[in-house]
Amino acid sequence: MDGGASSDSRISPKGKEEESNRTVLAILVGPPGSGKSTFCEAVISASRRPWVRVCQDTIGNGKTGTKAQCLKGAVDALNEGKSVFIDRCNLEREQRADFLKFCGSRTDMHAIVLDLPAKVCISRCVNRTGHEGNVQGGRAAVIVNKMLQNKEAPNLNEGFSRITFCQNDSDVKEAIKMYSELGPADKLSPGEFGKKSKKESGQQSIMKFFKKSAREENSQKEKEGGSSSGNGAGNEFPTLAFPSISTADFQFDLDKASDIIVESAQDFLKRVDNVRLALVDLSDKSRIISLVREKVMKKGIDSNRFITFVGDITMLYSKGGLRCTAIANAANWRLKPGGGGVNAAIFKAAGEALDIATKERAETLNPGSSVAVPLPSTSPLYQREGVTHVIHVLGPNMNPQRPNYLQNDYTKGCKILRDAYSSLFESFASVACLERNKKPKLAELKDKTSGESKNKENREEVKSRNQNQTTTTTTTTSGESKNKENREEVKSRNWGSWALALYNTAMDPEKYKDGLLEIADDFIVLNDLYPKARKHVLVLSRLNGLDCLEDAKREHLPILKSMHSAGVKWVKKFLSEDPSPHFRLGYHSVPSMRQLHLHVISQDFDSPSLKNKKHWNSFNTAFFRDSVDVIDEIEEHGSAKLSGEKLLEMELRCHRCKSAHPNIPKLKSHIAKCRASYPPHLLQNSRLLSATNNDLNIS
DNA sequence: GTTCTAGAAC
DNA sequence: GTTCTAGAAC
């Protein structure tokens, strides 16, 4: 920081009489979660000067307050000779203007800008509301980000005599100290303090993060003896390739659309560093591409960070040498493959895996929103193109032949299209953040620069790397054919001694019988030693050699079925004691403990043993394979689908409402309260068992 | 699978 | 300073 906020500041009053009665009206400027109320409270409790906090959230006595009420509150306090904090977001100039009318001989106008990283504000919002209301998880992010999009930093020419900018907690602390020490007769020196040098941004931590990653990558490159920098620098950035949304089938006006693309992109790139956007179109005669190019040029957007690209969005790397972290899909609202255009092409190129992964994420999509779907490493798009995520996005429809036609209402249409792009870019930012967190895999590829003649060796490299991955992590997709070659290698597993506890129990149950709930001929039921929910038991196969789900084949169907019905029996027993919980029965794709075991687990996940991301994701991503599906798949294909351990690294999402949470404690406090209905996928095929579940009465 | 702990993030 | 994560050892 350039030391600003600290640079004090107090000027002792010149002529005591005239100056000592001066009041201060300080307008706090910052999004939800930036700490405005905390700021006010800290100053008020420590200050010798009489302050009044005028807060729009509380002024309405339970109802949402209005700006008018705030204005009146401020006038009253100032008339009583008190100084005032205006505690509302005040991010836009217009919002602040009315308060500045008080600027007069007796009142000094101050702005205090809490320009903290958006990420920090979002996580505080999540924490604060925790549960109900709309400001939680992903929504908090959307709301805060949206507000920040329109923010206008206060300027002295609005009528402020002093503006204090705070970019981090220590700036805030100093500002609090400064205002706290402001006695009734003191005056703070006028001017701007603590303003950031160049770009202003609420995304500091994300920017820092990307900068750091880029540095690391560069230094690694140097170590490898690679070329230093040059014009290709942009090639290192995580890149989002996206088609123009709504302008093909949905017939959105091209001129308007190109404005929105350029403005949204510029906005995004301003806030997030070291990422790149690429607008892609199939044809070099594309009108949208030329319009966008023109506007990008006019606006002077960095050509390393925003590019237009002519080519097939499903073959950007293999055919065009353009490496993209994520590609956007102009999806339909049902998120179904097919149809035509980009949607059909992407689903086709990504294979069945994308369809499955999409279904796990969402059933439908609203216009103006997006959903990021991680691509399984088996998808051709991942292997061949290095794409880790497909982000489905749905724009407005201006085509009368298609559903949800907007009847030429471009006010609505433009808004939805803007929302669509901003949602798309936000999704990409979190994807890029996630990918960066992992050890760079594809980034290891030493490609020189762009060049259309992307050499074959590189592609071979990608391929072999991914093959290696499949052998070590036992990731598979569709059925038996896939992993035949790998099987021998995978077969010899190294189980640590700690991983044999279940195996030993299964082989010699009598020895451990005190701790067991049930011993049958082919299975054992026992409480999980470290339950991850209030009810969590294991149905353990007794068959030697059946180590894990990967080993389960058609010949094991009888035992799988008998384990399943044992599980259901125990669920019934638990429900007869307490009918409230829901249960799932399933296997981990890659278990830590040897000997096939079926988890029977209540969906409260209320347990001190549930401590980390891996715990959560092992029960709440596709890593957890429902017993019913496993049986179906083995009956049909001879083996069950397995998911890779990559899923265990995914961001934390509520298993009911699917909101995202920054860490385990916050997730846990959320799920303790979330009563949203379960995702539709779980409500089918008896994947979720409860007291009201009819299937329980029959089987 | 857990525990322990360094150090990152807050 | 405290909270949280993630990697190593078992």
Automatic annotation (TrEMBL):
What species is given as this protein's source? Rhynchospora pubera
Q: What is this protein called?
A: Transcription factor bHLH140
Q: Which SUPFAM superfamilies match?
A: HIT-like, Macro domain-like, P-loop containing nucleoside triphosphate hydrolases
Q: Which domain of life is it from?
A: Eukaryota
Sequence ranges assigned to domain Macro in this UniProt record: 293-538
Molecular function terms from GO: DNA 5'-adenosine monophosphate hydrolase activity; double-stranded RNA binding; mismatched DNA binding; single-strand break-containing DNA binding; single-stranded DNA binding
Q: Which GO terms describe its cellular component?
A: nucleus
Query: What GO terms in the biological process aspect are recorded for it?
Result: single strand break repair
The residue ranges flagged as biased composition, category Basic and acidic residues, are 213-225, 444-464, 481-490
**Which residues lie within the region annotated Disordered?**
213-234, 444-490
